[in-house]
Amino acid sequence: MATTDRTQRAEDRDQARAERARQIIVEILHQAGGEITSRAALSRAFYFAHLYYADRASGYLGFWPILRAADGPVIGQLGDLLADLVTKGIAELGHVQQGPYTSMCYRLTSRELRGEGLDSEAVQSIQDAVNLVQQTSPAELGELIRQNSRSWSTTADGEEMRVIYVDSGPDDEHELWDRRLQEIEEAMNRVWNERLSMP
């Protein structure tokens, strides 16, 4: 029975994380005027929103994986998250012509839709991230990430980036943050393991 409870708690946690990620995506689309025309732009807005939130609220915007790719961060299991939003009638997928290429376009079914359960710091962080992505060329964003993201430069392609505390703060504070992150991860793992071992 304890294993079943533990499994259920883990599934509940994963569902809550996925729902939070979907709400962040919905708010990104809302702040972008109802649509975004590439996976890269959506993923970069998601990534930068987490950084803005860490600076603004000193916490985590969400716990969904952000993975490293050669051209920048990508949202883990983005296809599944978007499929859920499409199934629920919140978003739709389309195509947009970009030169000789056809790209995916992600749209809200109604421009009035917003990310639910997001505090004002989260909404402002998402708005700042969307503004950055819309006002900066993809090449400039890629260079910004390559030059400044410690998590991107220290993570192998396809692996999860440790975004928040690794990329927040100036270089001279990085070692302090890294030690603190290790302490937090160890404490969280202890608490989580204690909760999982509870009957």
What does this molecule look like?
This protein has 199 residues and is of the alpha+beta class. It has one domain. Helix content is 61%, strand content 13%. It has eight helices and five strands, in the order αβαββαββααααα. It has helices at 2-31, 39-57, 78-87, 120-135, 138-148, 150-153, 163-167, 171-197, and strands spanning 35-36, 66-69, 72-75, 91-98, 101-108. A three-stranded antiparallel β-sheet has the order 1-5-4. Strands 2-3 form a two-stranded antiparallel sheet. α1 (2-31) packs across α3. The longest helix is centred in the first third of the chain and has 30 residues, at 2-31. It is globular and about 55 Å long. The termini are close together. The mean pLDDT is 89.
Keywords:
globular; single chain; two-stranded antiparallel ribbon; alpha+beta; 8 helices; 5 strands; 13% strand; 199 residues
Q: What is the gist of this entry?
A:
With 199 residues, the chain is of the alpha+beta class. It contains eight helices and five strands. Strand 2 and strand 3 (72-75) form a beta hairpin.
Flag low-confidence runs.
Answer: none
Number of strands: 5
General form: globular
Largest sheet: 3 strands, antiparallel
H-E order: HEHEEHEEHHHHH
Mean pLDDT: 89
| Residues in helix, % | 55-70%
Q: Number of DSSP helices?
A: 8
The structure class reads alpha+beta
**Gyration radius from CA atoms, angstroms:** 18 Å
The largest sheet has its strands arranged as: 1-5-4
Distance between the termini: 8 Å
Total tally of structural domains: 1
Content of β-strand: 5-15%
Task: Give the helices and strands, then pairings.
Elements: H1 2-31, E1 35-36, H2 39-57, E2 66-69, E3 72-75, H3 78-87, E4 91-98, E5 101-108, H4 120-135, H5 138-148, H6 150-153, H7 163-167, H8 171-197
Helix pairs in contact: 1-3, 1-4, 2-4
